[in-house]
Amino acid sequence: MTTSALPETMRALHLTAYDGRPESLQVTELPVPKPGSGQLLVRMTASPINPSDLMFVRGLYGVKRPLPTVPGFECSGTVVAAGSLAGKLLVGRRVACAPSPEVSGTWAEYVVAPMAQCVPLLPRIDDMQGASFFVNPFSAWVLMDMARRGKHRALVQSAAASTLGRMLQKLASKEKLPLVNVVRRAEQEEMLRKLGAEHVVNSSEPEFEERLRLICQQLGASLAFDAVAGPMTGHLAQALVDGGTVVVYGGLSEQESRISPQELIFHRKKVEGFWLQDFFKAGFGKAQLRALVDVPMLVGKEFETPVRAKLPLESGSEALRIAASDMTSGKVFFTPGATKP
Fold first, then answer.
1. How confident is the model over 266-315, as pLDDT tens digits?
2. Residue 324 CB partners (closer than 8 Å, separation 6+)
3. Distance CA 206, CA 311 (A)
4. Contact by Cβ (8 Å): 183, 203
5. pLDDT digits (tens, 9 = 90+) for 196-250
6. 223 sits in which H/E element
7. 252, 245, 221, 229: which is closest to 323 by C-alpha?
8. Which residues pair with 113 in a beta bridge?
9. Of 8, 89, 158, 313, which one has the fewest beta carbons inside 10 Å?
10. Cis peptide leading into 341, omega within 30 of 0?
11. How far apart are CA 196 and CA 136, in angstroms?
């Protein structure tokens, strides 16, 4: 059940050590994997570098696979083989693909993934948007669903100029839910205001903490989304109304979340974590089914991933350096057809 004869080997980025060193991520030739029952073989077209990928290659992510391994958590591509009759109808189709984090990743010419983790792409969704279909769009949807279900009057988020932060701003505007956006630079503030953000606070400016607290108290913000951790977790907690919750979903500062015990004891604040994998592992409940209906309609429209660069697998170390240097500028993608700069 293949589209044509497949090669015996493929190029893939192989990670040999969780140390972040350039020489620990190299292109190598590997056998093309064969799909098992319920699996699809996808010829990768594009695969992004997300903050979670940058953490993974340094051994800081929640999953640490035996080495050597192929990194990468999502991609777009074309189904070229199926391991069972159920997947035969998808052969030749463009899909967004997100293999389980515990298995080999997407920074390779061919990827095997369970059929349930491959979503056919609408014609209007290009390869780059399709490659970014899962991590940010579904995270934004699930976080906003928390706000809906909790009936929160207003929200606040850190790293608001990130791709995920911009998606949350668009959802908040659609829901007519006030969202306070925390950024680090003036140009990020300007960019968010052009997207329609009304409340933007720059953490680099004097009296940032007091400004943040005043705005959140005025709006009645009771839920915060934190991608930064470190002292930012405490700043967000302090700004929330009594009984508020900070949801930590990232660690861009690479520091431990710090929060005053007074906020926990006397103001009944809470801090909890969010990992998208837990949402998917919960099975096909009502929320999961709603997300699978809603997200494809948002990708490429309200949810748009800016593209910064497209690089071949041979530029692995350079691609990671660019991706880590300025995440606001857009995503860096591996595309096997790209030429080396």
1. 999 999 999 999 998 887 789 999 999 999 999 988 899 999 999 999 99
2. 54
3. 40
4. yes
5. 999 999 999 999 999 999 999 999 999 999 999 999 999 999 999 999 999 999 9
6. strand 221-226
7. 252
8. 40
9. 8
10. no
11. 20
